[in-house]
Amino acid sequence: MIVHNSEIPYFGEHTQMTMLCDNCGWRHTDFIPAEGKKPGAWEINVDSIGKLNVRIVRSSSCTVIIEELGLEVEPGGSSTGYISNIEGVLNRFENAVSLIYRQSLTDTSERENQEKCSQLLSEITLVKNGKKTVKLQLLDPMGHSQILDESAKPRELTTNELETLQVGPTIPVFDADDLI
Predict the structure, then answer these.
(1) Which of 10, 22, 38, 166 is the most buried if burial means most Cβ atoms within 10 Å?
(2) How many CB atoms within 10 Å of residue 60?
(3) How many domains is the chain partitioned into structurally?
(4) What CATH number should be reported for the domain holding residue 86?
(5) What is the pTM of this model?
(6) Distance between CA 100 and CA 128 in Å, rounded?
(7) Is residue 52 one of the residues assigned to a domain?
(8) In whole angstroms, what is the distance from residue 64 CA to residue 60 CA?
(9) In contact, 31 and 15? CB cutoff 8 Å
C-alpha cells in the first residue's frame, strides 16, 4: 500500500491511496479528501475548446455521464480514481468506443455497431474541436469527485440517484494475523 498526502488546488488536502499486489498485478487507486464529504454531483457545460483544460477529480465511486452523446461509465469492481481534465475524460470515452469499433470489425454482422461507433467518434471529435456543446456530469455517492472550475455547478444527489448509483469497488481488508 502506498499512501500519499498532498494539496490539490481548489480541492484541498487529500490522500491518494494505491494498493497493489506484486503477485497477481491487482491495483487500486483512489483519492480521499481529508475532510468528510457528502454525496453530490457536479456538472459543467463543455462549450469551448478552453473548457477541455478544466481539471476533473474522479473518485472510484463516481459515475461519469455525457447525456448528449449517450455516454455513461459507472464504477465497477476494479474502478480507480484519477485526476485529469475534460479532454482526458473525453479521451477515455474515445478509447473505449474505438476498442468496441475495432472488435466489431472482425464480425460482418456488426455493421450497425460499426456505424454507431463511427458516429460517436465523430461527435466526440466535434466536442474536442469546440463545435458541439455537451454537459459533463459527475455523480458521486461518496462525495469525493469534483470539477474544478468556477462555471461548474455542484448539487445534491436526488434520493433516486442515491438508491440507483453504483458505489464502486470494495477494498479488501486483511487482518494481519490471518496473513501469518
Answers:
(1) 166
(2) 25
(3) 1
(4) 2.60.120.1040
(5) 0.77
(6) 20
(7) yes
(8) 11
(9) yes
Cell 460499426 maps to which residue?
114
Expressed as residue numbers, the domain containing 83 is 2-170
Assigned domain for 107 exists: yes
Domain contains 73? yes
CB-side neighbour CA atoms (13 Å) of 127: 27
Alpha-carbon span 115 to 174, nearest angstrom: 47
179 within some domain: no
Residues of the chain with pLDDT under 50: 172-176, 179-180
Chain-centroid distance, C-alpha 16: 16
**Nearest Cα residue to 94 out of 132, 58, 126, 50:** 126
**Tens of pLDDT along 138-148?**
999 888 888 99
Burial of residue 126 (CB within 10 Å: 0-12, 13-18, 19+) is middle
